[in-house]
Design brief:
The structure holds two protein chains of two kinds. Chain A contains 15 helices and ten strands. By secondary structure, chain A is of the alpha/beta class. In chain A, strand 1, helix 3 and strand 2 form a beta-alpha-beta unit. In chain A, helix 1 runs antiparallel to helix 2. Chain B has one domain. The chains are: A alpha/beta, B mainly alpha. At the A-B interface, helix 14 of A face helix 4, helix 10 and helix 12 of B. Chain B: It is found in: Endoplasmic reticulum membrane. Chain B: Keywords: Endoplasmic reticulum, GPI-anchor biosynthesis, Membrane, Signal, Transmembrane, Transmembrane helix. Chain B: It is a multi-pass membrane protein.
């Protein structure tokens, strides 16, 4: 908000009263989405030459995201294997995503942050939650804040509730949901778009419970996501269907597009994809209709340049509160409400000492006395008393 | 006899107190040979702490003690050291009184048999005299109190000491002849650690002998007495278990205690035989092997009852040995209990062939336990096989000792084939001297 406010102020001061309505419209646009910066975490979790398509998937999304404006410094690209320099690649230094070698997504300016054996569940979770060793370079960090919209794209081999990392470990949907919750509690994102292209991908987003997450998956639980087209020259499948059609869709997006998420949900119907893509929007506060594709895939700054002076309108707060009515009627979530910090700090749990119940003690001693007298006879009582 | 006993007790208490104050206490407390998941002191403290936090102590598979122990230590936790010293003393005193009484019974029988002229003339040297048997109870108390195993068990504050006390009281009650008390203490012992249920048979045999009831399946009084004793035992057991329910108002002590003992889920190495096997076993065999191993403990009761029905106290000793070897989480405290009985059969020692080797095996194994543990866990240059080898050797030593004792006990008392009366503990030859000859040769 802090970055947008001076721009708005400038705007309003400059336009003055006659342009107030136009300004208000434009000002409203500023508050449509609460984000000021965009990040992307693109993860390919598969090794080996025959998983070429996963690397191609990830690199294609990387390319689109860069084209739409997110810089390398804001992209964390994790590729588990190097297809471009793989000895089995007949065309070294290239990774193609269309058959007949139409589109080389590797290019000259690919910046891979986590490569090869560094793509592990631990590193992925550390990137997301920010709990990384101090020696990690900046390019390997997700330095998002509470005004960041993050796109997380994952592809590889998965199953019901898990995603396989490099054929040796797995991340479960519960772990992922907990990582996102950590991110929410640490205010590491404003909104999060999670896209997954694996078999049974929908199982990975069923456990999310943090707010402001929208999720898309290439297939439902019980379905496999299928690959698109093999290239006979290279000898492997080059892309997965879902990502292929998503990319076709994204190729038409430019930084000023007003296409919204509902269109993205329609990408790749069952006739084209064979599997049924799924999505989840119940945790998301805004209506997907109002969410622009470029809110996540691009790094679009709403900047208007004007040469006129603007005077600050003290009724600015009106704009902030006027959200479109069709949004989810939830109150804005405040950090303090989520963790009852005051309770935690000032109140220790009451140390209640446990005592054995009276009935037990009574019963036990009655038994002991009974045994004693049964053994030694009542006549000994007078020796005691 | 009281004065030497008091002296022994004082010495024992001093040794324990000295060890408590030294730095060895912490080292001993964490040794796996002394503290098993069933009776470690750390777990008792943990369980009581959980209780103070309002959580059931049985949640989390840490605490496997019975509710009566919770009750006991809830009030006595600050005096834990004192409690364990007192339990050791009580055990020793109980064993002392038991063996004293037992010796009287032995003498009476021996006198009876001498008068009835049932002994062959050449066994005169083996008739036991009051003089040599005078010191046996003291020796028993001494063996128990000053046994390094017992001392270590006490210093580690392992609740095995409490188990031993209950079993000692049970033995005392049995030898005194009180069926009611014996049933009550047996129920308590079973409640504490499940395996003493096998001591039902020797206790029953001893009590029947005391009542002069013949052990014949046809005899009605035999069945009557057996039913009475069994009823007493089962009722007390049921009462104790129901009472334990009322402590925490839940039954989850049953899977935590008895389920744990029977299903052996914790495979921390100890001096027993279970952990190594089950660490390597495939899942779908584990139920079968758990059953096999557990049956192994209970299995010897009936054959031994048939063989040793004339000598129930010896049977009890052998049964205790079998329990402490084959139970699922043995510790050296269990070994100490049956080792305390060895002086009672000291007259057999001259016939035990390999007594030197066996004692050496036991001592060397006891010394090697911490060495190989260190090599395995800390130095990393050994592995579990080494430790298990020592465990096996230790147990083989114990089994051999029990077997040798039993074998020679039997050889000396006749295997029951010949019509001879036998003293319940003495070494008496049957009338035929040919067997006497063979028995004399067994000293070679």
């Amino acid at each position: 908000m802090a970055a947008a406010l001076p721009a708005v102020a400038l705007l309003l001061g400059c336009c003055g009263a006659p342009l107030a309505s136009g300004v208000q419209d434009q000002a409203e646009q500023f508050f449509r989405s609460g984000h000021t910066n965009n990040w992307a975490v693109l993860v390919c979790t598969s090794r080996f030459w025959f998983n070429y398509r996963h690397v191609a998937n990830t690199l294609s999304v990387y390319r689109s995201v860069k084209r739409l404006g997110i810089p390398d410094s804001h992209i964390v690209l994790m590729l588990a294997d190097d297809m471009a320099c793989n000895p089995r690649n007949p065309k070294p230094a290239t990774v193609f995503s269309h058959k007949n070698m139409e589109l080389n997504v590797y290019g000259d300016d690919v910046e891979v942050d986590y490569r090869s054996y560094e793509v592990t569940v631990e590193n992925f979770l550390r990137v997301l939650t920010g709990r990384i060793p101090p020696s990690t370079p900046r390019s390997k960090r997700l330095l998002s804040d509470d005004r960041s919209n993050i796109l997380i794209y994952m592809t590889g081999h998965g199953g019901n509730g898990f995603l396989k990392f490099q054929d040796s470990e797995e991340i479960t949907n519960v772990e992922l949901a907990d990582a996102f919750e950590q991110m929410w509690q640490k205010r590491r994102y404003n909104e999060l778009l999670f896209i997954i292209d694996t078999c049974q991908g929908a199982s990975m987003y069923e456990r999310f419970y943090s707010p402001n997450i929208m999720a898309l998956a290439s297939s439902q639980v019980g379905e496999d996501s299928l690959s698109h087209q093999p290239d006979l020259g290279i000898g492997v499948h080059l892309m997965d269907r879902y990502t292929f059609y998503v990319l076709e869709f994204l190729e038409e997006i430019h930084p000023a597009s007003q296409t919204n998420m509902n269109d993205l949900f329609q990408v790749c119907p069952k006739s084209l994809c064979v599997s049924t893509p799924g999505h989840r929007t119940d945790l998301f506060q805004r209506d997907p209709q109002n969410v622009l594709i470029t809110d996540f895939f691009g790094s679009v700054r709403k900047v208007e340049i004007t040469t006129e002076t603007i005077s600050l309108d003290r009724d600015l707060t009106v704009f902030e509160n006027e959200l479109p009515k069709d949004e989810l009627a939830t109150e804005p979530l405040k950090y303090a409400d989520q963790l009852p910090v005051a309770q935690i700090i000032h109140q220790k749990p009451k140390q209640k000492d446990w005592h054995p119940p009276g009935g037990f003690i009574l019963g036990l001693w009655a038994l002991i006395i009974m045994v004693f007298f049964k053994t030694y006879g009542i006549k000994h009582m007078k020796h005691i008393f | 006899m009281a004065a030497p006993l008091v002296l022994v007790v004082l010495v024992a208490v001093t040794v324990r107190a000295a060890l408590y104050r030294s730095s060895l206490a912490a080292f001993i407390a964490e040794r796996v040979e002394v503290a098993s998941p069933l009776n470690a002191w750390k777990r008792v403290v943990e369980g009581l702490a959980l209780l103070d936090l309002g959580v059931s102590p049985y949640s989390g598979a840490i605490f496997h003690e019975t509710p009566l122990i919770i009750y006991l230590f809830h009030f006595l936790i600050e005096y834990a050291e004192l409690v364990f010293m007192i339990t050791d003393v009580l055990t020793a005193v109980a064993l002392y009184l038991a063996i004293q009484d037992y010796n009287k019974v032995v003498f009476k029988k021996q006198k009876l048999l001498i008068e009835l002229d049932k002994y062959a003339p050449d066994v005169a040297e083996l008739i036991r005299t009051p003089m040599e048997m005078h010191y046996i109870p003291l020796k028993v108390a001494l063996f128990y109190l000053l046994n390094p195993y017992t001392v270590m068990s006490c210093v580690a504050k392992s609740t095995c000491a409490i188990n031993n006390t209950v079993i000692a009281f049970f033995i005392l009650a049995t030898i005194k002849g009180s069926a009611f008390l014996s049933a009550v203490f047996l129920a308590l012992a079973t409640y504490q650690s499940l395996y003493p249920i096998t001591l039902f048979a020797p206790a029953l045999l001893y009590l029947l002998q005391r009542q002069f009831i013949p052990i014949k399946p046809k005899s009605k009084s035999f069945w009557l007495y057996t039913m009475q004793y069994a009823a007493l035992y089962l009722c007390s057991l049921v009462v104790i278990i129901c009472l334990s329910f009322f402590l925490l108002n839940s039954w989850d002590f049953i899977p935590s205690v008895y389920g744990f003992i029977l299903s052996v889920p914790d495979l921390t190495p100890n001096i027993g035989l279970f952990w190594y096997f089950f660490a390597e076993m495939f899942e779908h065999f584990s139920l079968f092997f758990v059953c096999v191993f557990q049956i192994n403990v209970f299995f010897y009761t009936i054959p031994l009852a048939v063989k040793l029905k004339e000598h129930p106290v010896f049977f009890m000793f052998v049964q205790l040995a079998i329990i402490s070897i084959f139970k699922s989480y043995p510790t050296v405290g269990d070994v100490a209990l049956y080792m305390a009985f060895l002086p009672v059969w000291s007259h057999l020692y001259r016939f035990l062939r390999n007594i030197f080797i066996l004692s050496c095996v036991l001592i060397v194994c006891s010394l090697l336990f911490p060495v190989l543990w260190h090599l395995w866990i800390y130095a990393g240059s050994a592995n579990s096989n080494f430790y298990y080898a020592i465990t096996l050797t230790f147990n083989i030593g114990q089994v051999s000792r029990a077997r040798q004792t039993r074998l020679h006990f039997e050889d000396c008392t006749g295997s029951g084939v010949l019509p001879a009366t036998v003293n319940s503990a003495g070494c008496v030859w049957p009338i035929q001297s040919s067997i006497a000859a063979s028995c004399l040769s067994c000293s070679s």
